[in-house]
Write a structure and sequence with these properties.
It is a single chain. The chain contains 5 helices and 6 strands, in the order ααβββββαβαα. It is an alpha+beta fold and 178 residues long. It has one domain: 3-Layer(aba) Sandwich (Endonuclease, Chain A). The strands form 2 sheets. A 4-stranded mixed β-sheet has the order 1-2-3-6, with helices on both faces. A two-stranded antiparallel ribbon has the order 4-5. The longest helix has 25 residues. The structure holds zinc ion. Zinc ion (ZN) binds next to loops.
Length: 178
């Protein structure tokens, strides 16, 4: 049931839409206090990720569960009607259901496109969901993020030697023996 009045709903959504929404601040605060440095809303990076960490070639998106449609399954068509099976955290209002389903599906498609473009340009994407930042889950979630960042960092440097041509490698080995 949609318990909010239109006025309340408007205010809620305006708050969710804002640039410095709370979930993003929680992630930033954690990263900063653990010594990570980053840039915010970098326009030159596709999809304008919330947090950009160039050193790790990683873009972090902090997604609100409602707007970005956090869910456990893909949308399915059942008897001509589109049904989205949601996880607990993305509850689509019963009123104007079709409108919300379309809108959120569009957001999901745009997100996927942004992640794809970033990956094609050699960036790693990490998506953190709002519901994973609840006090009880925060530490675990951020440890996962940290692990992913470290893996990304290693991949970048493991990838580098491949850039040498074979002859360059031989040259380097010879130089080392001397
Ligand atoms: Zn969620």
């Amino acid at each position: 049931m949609d318990r909010l009045t239109p006025q309340q709903r408007h205010q809620t959504m305006a708050a969710i839409r804002g640039k410095n929404t709370k979930p993003e601040l929680i992630v930033r605060k954690w990263l900063w206090s653990h010594g990570y440095r980053y840039r915010l809303n970098v326009k030159s990076v596709p999809g304008k990720p919330d947090i950009v960490m160039r050193r790790f070639r990683t873009a972090i998106f902090v997604n609100g569960c409602f707007w970005h449609g956090h869910r456990v399954a893909m949308p399915q068509i059942d008897n001509g009607e589109m049904i989205i099976y949601n996880s607990e955290c993305c509850k689509i209002p019963k009123t104007n259901r079709e409108f919300w389903v379309k809108k959120i599906t569009r957001n999901q498609e745009r997100d996927q496109q942004n992640y794809r473009i970033l990956q094609e340009n050699g960036w790693y994407c990490i998506v953190v969901w709002e519901c994973q930042l609840k006090p009880k889950l925060l530490e675990h979630t951020m440890q996962q993020v940290e692990l992913q960042l470290n893996q990304n960092f290693l991949s970048i440097y493991q990838r580098k030697p491949i850039l040498f041509s074979e002859s360059e490698n031989e040259y380097l080995m010879v130089a080392e023996e001397e």
